Amino acid sequence: TGGGGVLRITMDAGQSNIGGALFGQTQWDTTDGLYMEARVRLSAIGTADERCGVWLTDLQEDTLSEYPFTLTTTVATAAADPNDAIGIFWEGNGPDSWVALSQNADALVIDGVTNQTAVIPPVAATWQTLSMYIAPGATVVEFAVNGNLLYRYSGATRAVADVSFIPVFGCTEGTAAINFDLDYIYVSQPRQT
After folding, report:
1. Residue 76 phi/psi, 5° resolution?
2. How far apart are CA 106 and CA 104, in angstroms?
3. 16 exposed, middle or buried (CB, 10 Å; 0-12, 13-18, 19+)?
4. What's the pLDDT tens digit per position in 92-117?
5. How far apart are CA 189 and CA 29, in angstroms?
6. Helix and strand counts by DSSP (H, E) for the chain
7. Which of 66, 84, 108, 137 could form a disulfide with 160 if both were Cys (CB 3.0 to 4.6 A apart)?
8. Which positions ≥6 away from 3 have C-beta within 8 Å?
9. CB atoms inside a 10 Å sphere around CB 132
């Protein structure tokens, strides 16, 4: 943990590990809609392979060995595992902004790199609130940073499959030593009857 009781992950310079925290089980789904919010802070802004984010994934057992996406300044690539993931991400050698991404059955659906709505960069040593609202059926999704629209998806293809998800706060290590702090994470969905 970091100061003040926050959850802290330190990305050590020159390493290639992944770290993070899973919250609960694969119990959340998008059938009736879902809202997720997390307050995060980066101690510094890297410029290499440092990756961090807050997301939902369908893969519980291997989540912390399978980061769902990689980024460059112009391309987002979905990993083979997990099969489905959705969230807000940042990568040091990616765009100078938080990025909204999703994959459905290993295929990139929401691509906030090539179809960027807004540029909202992480700010060193500053708390930022990342949120996403997934409408029922997952064909409309809105992502925001500090209440400002980052990306809005509306399409015929579901952003993610109709499966159960687990919330994740995670990062990989790169070439700079950076702390990634989590103050809180909140997930809610309508009660199913």
Report:
1. -110, 140
2. 5
3. exposed
4. 888 889 999 999 999 999 999 888 88
5. 8
6. 0, 14
7. 84
8. none
9. 26
